[in-house]
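The data are passed on as follows:
___
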Amino acid sequence: MIYRLSFRRRIWMAFMLIVVLAVTAAGWLSYRIAADVVEKNAYRFSQTTLSKTSQVLDEKLNRIMSSVYSMMVNTAYRRALGFDSNFTEVENYYTHLSALQATFVQTRLYEPIIHTILVATPEGDYYQTSQSRLFESSFYDSPLYERIKREQRKLWFEGHDDAFFSGRERVVSFVMEGIPANFTDDIYVVANVKEQALKELVLGQGNGEQGQFLLATRDGTDVLRSDSPLLQELTGDAGFLRSLGQEQGYFDYVSEGKDYLVRYARLKSFDDWTLFSILPKSDLFKQMDSIKWTIIAIISGCVLVSFAFSDMLTRLLLKPLNRLQFLMKKVEMNDLSVRYESEFEDEISQLGYRFNRMLEELGRLFREVQEAEQEKSKSEMKALQAQIDPHFLYNTLNTIYWKSQTKHLADVQDMVLSLSKLFQLGLNKGKELTPLGFELMHVEQYLKIQRQCYEQLFDYEIEIDPGVDQQQPVPKILLQPLAENAILHGFKNRTEGGRIRIRAEQDDRQLRLIVEDNGEGMQLPMQLSAPAEGQPLKGYALYNVQRRLQLQYSGKASLTIDSQKSMFTKITIAIPRGECDDTRE
């Protein structure tokens, strides 16, 4: 059926298909990108919340332990337990108990979250007398004593009823030996913290509407006895049990058809405890619904607008395009005489008029390219012939021969190696362009050879600014003709003291290659032109280089000469960066 439709209708259908696909794909990609961003932010939020809460809890537990340690170095505490060598007098229990009251008060002031403190000794317990001690409950008969004797280390005990003081409030206890074992056994310090105070500390670090926290022991026991059914249910989950004892991580959890993200991190101050945070994914990703519906609305609006305008656009576009298509088919048949005409003045008509100018320009360019290619080939061949002429080879080989006869073998080796490198870099594997570093190396080999041929005639130096990119391409054999011109013409009346200086520098727009000598100089202004038939090639090197630059860079490169008679000659080549009309190999 599609073949029976009109061309305009097929364009309309194609236009609509492209619009729908493009808008849908853009909407879907936008949604995925937004979803990824929201998901990353949500996971980052959950990790930040857990890290902050874990850090605060760690700091609080450390402060509690530090408070107990500070109490244990107190003079009254040491005297009461009888291991301070500075005090030898015997004092009774009640004297020590009275002396310890200030220590207990000071410890609780340093860390107010500590609810009660008990120092259990075989001779009697020390505690803050303002709190009512339940003497029928002995520490040595409690589960706390059994566990610390079994594990022989300082311990944190999960939430339990306080059996040592009246009120029997729910507390979390820190228990450790109260005196080194080499002095006396069975002396312990118990610091009780209200379970509710730790709950408020943990919950206060996160938004209660966003999630809940669970502090669990290595065997899965809830340290703070949460009343939340969700947290109680979580303690039986396989992912929860696997995470116990691990450093940190997260897992997904489903309860009553609702997805949750559970993150966990082991505490640093007491690695038997692991802090869990459970966050509903619906809360984490609640921004996704608004993003999704916004994108759907935008896609729908774009499709409706496309329906309204597509038919009109196809009608307007097809009429001038049909004419232009017809002319293009004639051009495909190599008929460049056709021209576009239209009564419209819209963009397509302007395109047609530009098509006319393009045809005219193509005709002119075809002719110019043919002429330029012929001239360029001739210029390149003449350039190579002009640079590596028989006179240069004769002088070089003759010098090598006489140096070998006079046993200057090191000089012979250097000249042969330089000549080999000169030809290798000049051939450049047949490539038109060569890296700047290779071009500078090529002219350096040439100067090395010439300095051996014309001893004491000249010295040279090659400078490269630090910012110059030596990998940028330049026409090969560009600098050697200029160096040769300086030697043959600039130093023709010298026997010594010549100096050639080659410098490479660049800025954001162009690369500049400068060849300067202190030779005879030349008369300015100087007209650079090709020699006539039968005329000598003196000065042709400069013309050859200039012509190659014009052909290679379409007139955007330049060669300038600054000279003063009997003083110096300075030739500057400026090459635009990043532009080259010919990159053929």
In short: The first strand starts at residue 114 and ends at 120. The radius of gyration is 47 Å. Residues 323-356 form one domain. Residues 7-72 form the longest helix (66 residues).
